[in-house]
Each structure stands twice: as C-alpha cells, then as structure tokens.
Amino acid sequence: MSDITPLDKVGEFGLIHRIQNTITLQQPSTVLGIGDDAAVIAPAANHDVVVSTDMLVEGVHFDLTFCPLKHVGYKAVAVNVSDIAAMNATPTQIVVSISIGARFSVEAIEELYEGMRLACEAYNVDLVGGDTTASRGGLTINITALGQVEHGKAVRRSGAGPNDLICVTGDLGGAFLGLQVLEREKQAWQADPETQPELSKYPYVLQRQLRPEARMDIIHELRDLGVVPTSMIDISDGLASETLHLCQASGTGARIFSENLPIANPTLEVAEEFNLDPIMCMLNGGEDYELLFTVPLSAHDKLKNHPDITIIGHMIDKSEGANLITKAGQPVPLRAQGWQHF
Ligand code: ADP
Ligand code: MG
C-alpha cells in the first residue's frame, strides 16, 4: 500500500512547497518561477507572446475511474501545448491552477504533478506558478500556457485561400475508439466488480486516448522544410468540426477525400469490433490532438512523401461548401458533430 497523507495534514502551503521542490526550470525566458506573487518572463527580442488556457473538469473532461492521475496531468499539459503548436509557436511556460476535493490525498496530487512534470520535460516547458483551492466536488485543473513565435509569424485559422492543400498529421479516430473501450470496460466493471478489465488488447487506442502528444515535432519539421502553413488548428473536436472552423475563418469551402483520411490499423480493428464506421470515427471522434493545416500548392512536393503528414484534400471557393468526397465521388456536406458542451 502506498502512503496516504490527507491534504489537511500539509495544508495549502505545504502542498505548494512539495510541488515547488519537484520543479526544475529549463527555459532561458523564465526569469522567476514559483514562490513569489507572480512569475517573471523575458520574451526573446522580436518575438510575440502567445497565450492559451484550458480547463479540465473531473466527470466532464476526464474520468478517474479509468484514467490514472499521472496521465491526466500529462494530457492536461499536452493539450495546452497543442494549442500553442497550432499557432506555429513554441511553448515556454505554463501556470497551473487546481481545485481539489477532500477525497484527494497529497500523494494523489503529487501523481498529477508527476504527469505534468513529465510533459513539461518532454515539451521543454517551465511550470512557473498557479493557484490552489479546495473544492466541494471533484478535481478541476486549469492550465494557461505561454509560448513564443517570431514577430508576426503566428499562424491563424483565417489565412487559407482557395486551392490551398489541406494536410493532417498522424492518424485519426484512435482517441475516440480508446474512449469507447474504456467506457465499455467501465460499464462491465460497474455491472460486476469481479470482472477484470480487458485493456491489454488495445494498447494503441488507449494510448491515443490517455496520453496524447502535442505535435511540436511537426512544427519544427515544417520550419526546417521552409513550409509555412497558411492556416492551422489542432484537432480537439474532430476533423469535420475543425475543417469547418478553418473554412469559416478563412472564407473558403473545402473538399476532403474519404480515401485519403489516415487511420492506423489498430484503430481500424477496434472500429470494426465496435461496429462503428471508421470514416465517422475520423471525422467526428475528436481528442486526437493532431494538427490540421493548409499550405500553398507549391508546398506539395515537400510534403507529399512525408511519413507523418497526409494531404487529405484542398480548399475551394466558399460557394462550393465544405464536403467530404466519398470513394464513389459523391460530395457529403461536412457537419460539426464534435463534443457539444451545452
Ligand atoms: P497568492 O496568495 O499570491 O495567490 P499563493 O500562496 O497562492 O500566492 O502562491 C504562492 C506561489 O505558489 C506562487 O508563486 C504561485 O504561483 C505558486 N502556486 C500556488 N499554487 C500552485 C499550484 N497549484 N501549482 C503551481 N504553483 C502554485
Ligand atoms: Mg494564490
């Protein structure tokens, strides 16, 4: 049995002190981290500061019955880094605010921070501050991420033109199918607590759901290739919804070819097992945190053989609408069926 220390034994300051002790700073732009009234950051000359924030609520965004706190911490940082990446910026610092229900122990919160620490290390980001409060309910985590990009080089959703190529990184649908597996096993377990969850058969989709990565690697590669996206967004709600966001912001239509959509074999197998249409999983699944971006036609040759970037279609005049083109050549209007909060 691991140790269980009640939060009231160390108190708010004791907890912050413990968190502070595990943190090392690695960013040259961090002047001052945790411990004062505010952190101090020195942005590089000629750079813009990019800011994004995300709130994760227990029971809404994560379920601790099947998601270990360490993974929640890692994912919370990764999804914030993903937003910074989607601006073509480099993440530099995060601040983390948490409100904690009485059922959490000091060790549980340390698990959460261990996940965040691993992600900070992976993305070269400093945790420079936050806030800690009690909660009457569960756990809420709010992370604000800061990043930097050369002055004027942030990539918005609004820069795509007709004929630009639409590209996506990695593969799609995995995170959604991972969630289906977890929810099925949770239901089986609730019906009969003696059953052992069947998770070892699904390493790929579970990893996609529980431990997504922000595609900072692609941001660096595009820079090395000299390819500047005309518009970009990260896929949190699903390909269809995010494509519509780019179209709306850019004033374009889009054609996406179902045959070109990237799916991994393990994802395809789970879709078949659950009797779900793989195309629907890719379009509407969400939480893959891949990047969706457009590039000028002239970038085609530089990207066409990239192992981790797929050209899935192209922008078109707004009057043509945003369509999925089926294998049979039929246009089907894209619809945002991503996660609706309200
Ligand atoms: P204040 O009363 O000024 O809000 P706090 O006691 O809340 O100060 O915070 C003291 C220091 O600890 C600050 O640097 C703050 O950023 C940091 N801090 C507080 N809570 C957290 C947390 N959950 N994670 C990381 N840093 C935190
Ligand atoms: Mg405070």
Element-level helix/strand string = HEEEHEHEEEHHHEHEHHEHEEE
**Unreliable stretches:** none
Q: For the report, how would you describe the main beta sheet?
A: 7 strands, mixed
| Spatial shape | globular
Helix count from the secondary structure assignment: 10
Report strand %.
15-25%
Decide which structural class fits the backbone. alpha+beta
Radius of gyration: 21 Å
- Ligands bound here? adenosine-5'-diphosphate, magnesium ion
Widest sheet: strand order? Answer: 8-10-7-11-9-12-13
List keywords for this structure.
binds adenosine-5'-diphosphate; 7-stranded mixed beta sheet; 4-stranded mixed beta sheet; binds magnesium ion; 342 residues; alpha+beta
Tell me about this structure.
There is one protein chain. The chain starts with 6 loop residues before the first helix and ends in a 9-residue tail after the last strand. The longest helix has 18 residues, at 106-123. The chain is an alpha+beta fold. A hairpin with a 5-residue loop joins strand 12 (322-325) and strand 13. It has helices spanning 7-21, 69-85, 106-123, 174-191, 203-210, 216-225, 239-250, 265-273, 278-284, 300-303; strands spanning 30-32, 40-41, 47-57, 90-101, 126-135, 140-150, 165-169, 231-234, 253-257, 291-295, 309-316, 322-325, 331-333. It has ten helices and 13 strands. The strands form three sheets. Strands 8-10-7-11-9-12-13 form a seven-stranded mixed β-sheet, with helices on both faces.
